[in-house]
Amino acid sequence: MGDGVVVPSLSNNFSAVQNAAARLIYNLRRCDHISDAIVSLYWLRVPQHITFKVAVLTYRVLHGTAPPYLTSSFTGVADMPHRRTLRSASTDQIDVSFFRQSTVRGHAFPVAGAKVWNSIPSDVTSAPSLPVLRKRLKHTYFAAVMLLSDDNLYPH
Fold it and tell me: Angle at Cα 146 formed by Cα 16 and Cα 120, nearest 5°?
């Protein structure tokens, strides 16, 4: 979910801080495994947390509670005349803008926000309020992380 949103070098730095905080809370040594501590704290890993924040900000833009300079960042697929007959027009998906600059690409908020938003299940994006969205979104990301870790522990 939300690939291309996180710059790897920044993610590594923040992950080190998150791991250190979990070690401090649980009094773990540097050689101890940290994954169980992160899970028991119900913390998202740094890439998922950044994607979570992008999704929350996108929700706020779409519902008019974001800063004014962001309000024109997105166009709904249903609002585009040439896409009204597509199946995606009946969803709450948003158009992914195209950027030519290689330095900006998928990290620009209109692009990253649209990609993240479109990757979220519709039962999450249709949340009636921000607290409900945050709860559903965190549960979705946390469940995905747990599913991946379970697959690693018990291969098919």
Answer: 95
